[in-house]
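Our consortium's second objective concerns turning raw sequence data into structural hypotheses that experimental partners can test. To show how far this objective has progressed, the report includes one record in full. It was chosen at random from the queue rather than selected for favorable results. The single chain below, 273 residues long, was entered without modification.
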Amino acid sequence: MTPDSAAIDPYPGAEAAQASLAHIRIVLVEPAGPLNVGSVARVMKNFGLSQLVLVNPQCDPWCDQARMMAVHAGELLGQANCVASLPEALVGVQRAIATTGLDHDFPMRLESPRQVLPWLVQSSTVPPLTSALIFGREDNGLSSQELHYAQRLLHIPSHAGYTSLNLAQAVAVCCYELAQIDTLAASEQIAIASAPIPPSALPAPQESLEALYQQLQGVLLKIGYLYPHTAASRMKRFRHLGNRSQPSSHEVRMLRGILRQMEWALRCQTLRP
């Protein structure tokens, strides 16, 4: 059986889906298997996704094994963006979903692909929001800290006898669902997302939120609300609050302005005799 013998016929609306799903990044965090990376590139091309981002890969993602599994998606694989950290992979991202196979002690509920993935397919927003679907390591997935970079969590239901999915298979399930959601919306001419969002209300990109969280942590440490040994744990709650509310860039600038004023007031109080 050759690597290409399982090729599938294009699904109805594939060309349209390729354009409308172009805003979605598939992010792999520290993938260890080149066969998986190549397989992910192939299945992305099967279903019309084109942005592959690799975070600190633990293998050579462009080796012969990876290219063999990519088959006709070699160009997509070759154009994959390789970055050092998850925050770097999420620069410019306004909506992010993280995948997990575990029921973490986490404030966000786990949702199935059909429940949560329509949130990424922005058929009624022009231009579409830059979005990311994050997958973790083959052996232990995403850490609790990494899950906090997403606004929602995705869990693929599987049989209780063997719940662990292969990385490439998990990506395939999600890419298929994204393509089906997009094709259904196009064929029925329905809006699967919210009403068009005015530019002033567009969610702030991830790097703006991260800068807000860092500034907030600094101020809360100065006023004694946080302590160094518990700051990271307490800040997770603020991250969850910010991710759930999805503030706009204007709102983030407003909040950072308040924090700067607080920092100025603290400096003035310190300088008083």
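The partners drew two points from this record. The chain has two domains: 14-188, 199-271. Residues 249-271 form the longest helix (23 residues). Both points have been shared with the crystallography group to help prioritize constructs.
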